[in-house]
Amino acid sequence: MKAIQYKAFGNSNVIELVEVPQPEINNENQVLIQVKAASVNPLDIKLRSGIMQQIRPVNLPFVPGADVAGIVVATGEKVTQFKAGDQVIAVTREGGYAEYAIANESNVAIKPTNASFEEATSLVVNIGTAQSVLFNEGKLAKDQKVLIQGAAGATGATMVQMAKNAGAYVIATASGQGIALVKSLGADEVIDYKSQDVSLLANNIDLVVDCAGGESQHKLFEVLKPGGRLFSIVSPPSAALAEKYQVDARFISSNISAGSLAAGLALVNEGKLRPIVAKTFPLDEAAQAQDFVSAGGVNGKVVLVVLQ
Ligand SMILES: NC(=O)c1ccc[n+]([C@@H]2O[C@H](COP(=O)([O-])OP(=O)(O)OC[C@H]3O[C@@H](n4cnc5c(N)ncnc54)[C@H](OP(=O)(O)O)[C@@H]3O)[C@@H](O)[C@H]2O)c1
Questions:
Q1: How far is the centre of ligand 1, averaged over its atoms, from the C-alpha of 153 (Å)?
Q2: Domain span at residue 177?
Q3: 256 lies in a domain?
Q4: Is any ligand 1 atom within 6 A of the Cβ of residue 297?
Q5: What is the DSSP code (8-state) at residue 62?
Q6: With 80 as the cut, is the pLDDT of residue 95 above it?
Q7: C-beta of 160 in contact with ligand 1 (< 6 A)
Q8: 270 falls within a domain
Q9: What is the DSSP string of 63-122?
Q10: Per the domain annotation, does 269 fall within a domain?
């Protein structure tokens, strides 16, 4: 089968389209999926650069791709929820940039019928991360105030929608065309992070979610109420600032499974959560797709389309 692979860490020049053996089910809980679409997540680019080797090592040669949407072609003996022909989405962790991929049954869910394969794969990391940060860790409740930094990005745009569906008051930071996008998704207030100072415009926030990282994270402490939460999905917040402002500030690594996708997928099926695909590329343009994500300014998910 065709797959995208790299044999060394580096820039997108290391990416190759190769012919490799089709993966086989080697565990009774596994599902083999014919891939129709696979997300390009920012993590794919960090892994390819080699900077994650200390905390999230990968073995070379490596086929990237943390999630897919496609059709079940075979199942292990103990798989009960899926059968050949089912249209599904799955957390693969690796190997998604390929014509076939393997996932454990616990990481597979039925694709929403109102989403294309491209839209469906875009939901996996976004919903799983939003669920972890907003609800499992953030305990976001109706009428609470949440501020989402980087709200027009792939994960941020899903967080805005899931927080609004939960009845929260949503303040979003964005720039450029992202401002109109987050307004259309229901944000109650939008702060242009390039021209406005978030620390002067927001206060008494219950939960801040940082999807951008970097220096801009420091100002986010100032908008929290005492005892509030600042969770970053990008970089660990300053322990000294957490102490100073008396808040719970942590890096959150989302643990995505079919279970953590259930609530978000129900919203998609009800038409209450919109997948946002910024751009699609064919599988053999995976390098260009990753460079497009790296360049920034993308509103929504970039997706690889796998044609067979
Ligand atoms: N920990 C986890 O489990 C987990 C899960 C998913 C993702 N992540 C990480 O989370 C990050 C976001 O992922 P994503 O897929 O949403 O990426 P993305 O689509 O590139 O979104 C990032 C957003 O951040 C915005 N941004 C950049 N600098 C900013 C600043 N100084 N202030 C406010 N906003 C700023 C960007 O806006 P502009 O385009 O306007 O610049 C963009 O909309 C990535 O680093 C990814 O690896 C972590």
A1: 6
A2: 126-251
A3: no
A4: yes
A5: B
A6: yes
A7: no
A8: no
A9: ---SEEEEEEEEE-TT--S--TT-EEEEE-SS--SBSEEEEEGGGEEEPPTTS-HHHHHH
A10: no
Q: What is the largest CA-CA distance in the chain?
A: 58
Residues 180 and 239 both lie in one domain: yes
What is the Å distance from ligand 1's center to 147 Cα? 14
Condensed to tens digits (0 to 9), the pLDDT of residues 96-138 reads 999 999 999 999 999 999 999 999 999 999 999 999 999 999 9
* Cβ of residue 195 lying under 6 Å from some atom of ligand 1: no
The CATH number of whichever domain residue 238 belongs to comes to: 3.40.50.720
Q: Give percent of the chain with pLDDT exceeding 90.
A: 99
Shared domain check, 64 and 6: yes
Q: Are residues 84 and 118 in the same domain?
A: yes
N residues, the chain:
308
Does any domain span residue 188?
yes
Ligand 1 midpoint to CA 274 (Å):
18
Question: Which residue's CA is the closest to the ligand 1 atom numbered 4?
Answer: 233
294 lines ligand 1 (CB under 6 A): no
Is the full-model pTM beyond 0.90?
A: yes
The answer, yes or no, to whether residue 230 has pLDDT greater than 80, is yes
- Provide the CATH number for the domain around residue 24: 3.90.180.10
Average pLDDT, the chain: 97
Number of domains in the chain: 2
Q: Locate tokens 């109650």: which residue? A: 188
